[in-house]
Amino acid sequence: MGEQEFIRAEHINKTFSKQGKKIKAVDDVSLELYRGECFGLIGESGSGKSTLANVIAGLEKADSGAVYMDGPGGKINLLDAGNRKIQKEYCQKRQMIFQNPRLSFNPAMTIGKGLEEGVRYYTKIPAARRKELALENLELVGLKREYYDRHSSELSGGECQRAAIARALMIEPEFLICDEITSALDVSVQAQIMSLFMEIQKKKKMTCLFISHDLALVSSICNRIAVMYNGKIVESGDTKQIIYHSSSNYTQKLLQSVFFADRETMTRYERKKMESSI
Ligand SMILES: Nc1ncnc2c1ncn2[C@@H]1O[C@H](COP(=O)(O)OP(=O)(O)O)[C@@H](O)[C@H]1O
Ligand SMILES: [Mg+2]
């Protein structure tokens, strides 16, 4: 109720050629994200999640399809390759966070300068204010001011992912795409990064496409999800509806492997915890 559509991907197709063979990585995928929601995209490795994310982010060119964002002037097709103005504007509205946080930083650059890069490129904010912004965002993700002068190689994986989140926040994006952002981290660190991420997503009211192969993780934070398999969305909608009343054989298998493999032997406490998380 009252949900306002913000991002809509329509009939996205993307085929790769590999050693003469064609791989249909994304096969006629459509999805819509409401403003301010954290929408989950799940599916096993190789199902096409990252390719779809990259197309939606404008980092990868689709064979066909469109991605619309709702703006003051109505809907615009973000994939309108001929329109540089739209592309530049979109780059200021969306950010992506990846599995490997080190790739977000140039190893030769300090974290502070890395944070400021986007602001320097897209805005006319003066240097002193840029630095203040970087320090504010470091604080927001729980990193000390000293990290401004460090290099990514001096940070732990978790710290580096915090810095990557701070970097993504610098231009105040309206749309955030997170591709397996905790998959490379230790389990204990994963939980910290997730709670940090959720807090920030809510506080900033960002629309988010949250991608993971981890169904338990996605279903614990997203009210709506889509399940991807073999380049297609096999199911999408309300998380609880999908978990409890899935109509897709694939989703059911995925669910069994994650939640219910051990259901018989689960203690009542574990079951309650599991059910309250979805
Ligand atoms: N640049 C590429 N060149 C060739 N094949 C690719 C490329 N990127 C992805 N693929 C293939 O596309 C399919 C989907 O990959 P991907 O989008 O990375 O899936 P996921 O993120 O769900 O693991 C896989 O079969 C993968 O091997
Ligand atoms: Mg991937």
UniProtKB/TrEMBL annotation:
InterPro entries: AAA+_ATPase, ABC_transp_ATP-bind, ABC_transporter-like_ATP-bd, ABC_transporter-like_CS, P-loop_NTPase
Alphabetical keyword list: ATP-binding, Nucleotide-binding, Transport
An annotated GO BP: transmembrane transport
Gene Ontology MF, one: ATP binding
Tagged with keyword ATP-binding: yes
Domain called ABC transporter: residue spans: 7-255
Pfam families named among the record's database cross-references: ABC_tran
Keyword Iron: no
Family according to the record: Belongs to the ABC transporter superfamily.
UniProt name for this protein: Dipeptide/oligopeptide/nickel ABC transporter ATP-binding protein
Organism: Fusicatenibacter faecihominis
